[in-house]
Design brief:
This protein has 334 residues and is an alpha/beta fold. Helices cover 34% and strands 25% of the residues. A hairpin with an 8-residue loop joins strand 12 and strand 13. It is globular.
Length: 334
Amino acid sequence: MATRWGICAAGKISNDFMVALQTLPAQDHQAVAVAAKDQKRAKEFAKTHNIPEVYGSYEELARDPNIDIVYVGVLHIIHREVVLMYLEHKKNVICEKPLAMNSTEVKELIAAARKYNVFFMEAMWSRFFPVYDQIRSLLSQKAIGDIKVVRAEFGSNQYHVPRAVGKELGGGALLDIGCYCLQFALMVFKGEKPESVTAKGFLYETGVDETVTIILQYSGKRQAILTCTIMVAMPNQAAICGSTGMIQIPSCMWCPTSVIVHGKETKFPLPHSSKPMHFTNSTGLSYEAEHVRQCLLKGLKESPFMSWADSELLHTIMDEVRKQLGVRFPQDKA
């Protein structure tokens, strides 16, 4: 039986998720409903992606009994309220990154998922790419010896985009793209809490972070150096440097299609689609969707590759980074 998806929001990322979903076998995945606050927009979205049911509110989607899991693609400033509403209706949920505005909200959502006994995951799609699978396998085999330094960078010219710089929209480099660099380091160090977090950067005129460099210090003289910016494009590479070798992601570290190990490159072609998409390598969202299906089939409540603890640590570190930079949102309690 196909996993029946409900799509919450009809924006760009939801479009790309649908395109990716349609690269998977129809007997395994089916979008059965879409909800948006603008019903006209929802109807257009449904027509584009052949979705049978259309709702003009997120609450109507929550009441639909024919949905196995909801994909939440709304702006992260309202993730908490929207996700909480679905969890309270005992719906399985995956929610786009960042999962919430801060770790307090993340803990609240995890507590609700536990209370209502449903599957819940931060949709950190990077972790489900074949390249990331390969990296996890190599690290478990100690293919590059003892890890000493991890580097990751993500820079994209976005300062002209209101969502990226608006404080009222939860803007800034860290929450939007820096989280990809952080999650990479946390994956490499297997969810270990760093001994210290040091952040330096600059703020945009709106009060959000425009460029940030983070140093995570771990026991045993291990370190991660991570840089993100919404001011300029960067090579967007990542590297894991060990005592006997190096693993490199040559580009698009958040959605990679190749990995270099000991100087030898291996490529992982993406699923193909001719439909228009808005973001780089978006058909790779299909890896995430299939992972979620497998979790549901196994009766899991959280992903082994993007666990609740992973999301909580990620957001706790981002809270500390913002504190050091002086970035504060209305959602941050005193």
